[in-house]
């Protein structure tokens, strides 16, 4: 599985260390709550709400340079809109990788 990186963040920051740190802080702050809400909705089989949660999370996946994981998130979001939880395991593996990564920041 691919690992988070700062390639895209570095492009956005264009050498501005304060901006980079602020962006990472926002992700570190928001991601755990967004993940928890997603897990609550998916456990309750609220697929439409879970799709909205995935939509928010997928942007953080992209920002963290996880291109293949972003594709999984897009497909999973679309599946959830059709009440199909296929790709749940793959998506939640991505969430776990991000959670572990954020602990290191």
UniProtKB/TrEMBL annotation:
Q: This protein's superkingdom? A: Bacteria
Q: Name one GO biological process term.
A: phosphorelay signal transduction system
Keywords linked to the UniProt accession? Phosphoprotein
- Protein's UniProt keywords contain Phosphoprotein: yes
Domain HPt, chain residue ranges per copy: 16-105
Which positions bear Phosphohistidine?
55
Q: Please give one Gene Ontology molecular function term for this protein.
A: protein kinase activity
- Cross-referenced PROSITE patterns: HPT (PS50894)
Q: What is this protein called?
A: HPt domain-containing protein
């Amino acid at each position: 599985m691919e690992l988070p990186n700062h390639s895209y963040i570095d492009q956005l920051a264009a050498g501005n260390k304060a901006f980079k740190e602020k962006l990472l802080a926002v992700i570190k702050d928001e991601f755990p709550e967004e993940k928890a809400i997603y897990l609550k909705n998916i456990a309750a089989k609220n697929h439409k709400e879970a799709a909205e949660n995935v939509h928010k999370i997928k942007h953080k996946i992209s920002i963290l340079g996880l291109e293949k994981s972003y594709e999984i998130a897009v497909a999973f979001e679309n599946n959830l809109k059709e009440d199909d939880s296929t790709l749940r395991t793959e998506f939640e593996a991505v969430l776990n990788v991000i959670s572990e990564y954020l602990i290191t920041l």
